[in-house]
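Appendix C reproduces, verbatim, an entry submitted by the partner laboratory led by Prof. M.T., so that reviewers can inspect both the input and the predicted structure.
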Amino acid sequence: MKISKLLATTLLTLGLSAPIMAGSATSEHMIAEAKKVTKSISAKELQKKITNEDDLWMLDVREPYMRGEGSIEGMDNEAVSLGVLVFDIESKIKDKNALIVVYCRQGKSAVLAAKMLTEDLHYKNVLYLDGGLESWLNEGNSVFNDLGELRLVTE
């Protein structure tokens, strides 16, 4: 089991360090514009909310094949890919006033999803995790997957 966790940690580290979704000038512009109209939360602030057991939803907007990297354990968790968010989210999170923290690997899809949730779907209390799972792990927090709890090892 120890070797499996080491392998998973290594794969997770390599996966999260790979330049994913570098994006075009258009997508980078869309992300910059979305950041102007959405609110972010830092990994430290999110950890405090989870520790305090604040009532919140964790919304993972990564594609299904990316979710094996692990997820953040929160009070309530949902996974809805950005591409189908507009179609699926209202059946999963019905309360438009609920605190929703949206995350992805680097925060790029999350900020676009946060903008869609607030402007198009009229959710009132949406934050995106600034820096995504990368910032979460870099702050020393864990993610969880089928192998259990995983952390980045920086030694």
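DSSP finds six helices and seven strands in the chain. Additional entries are available on request from the coordinating office.
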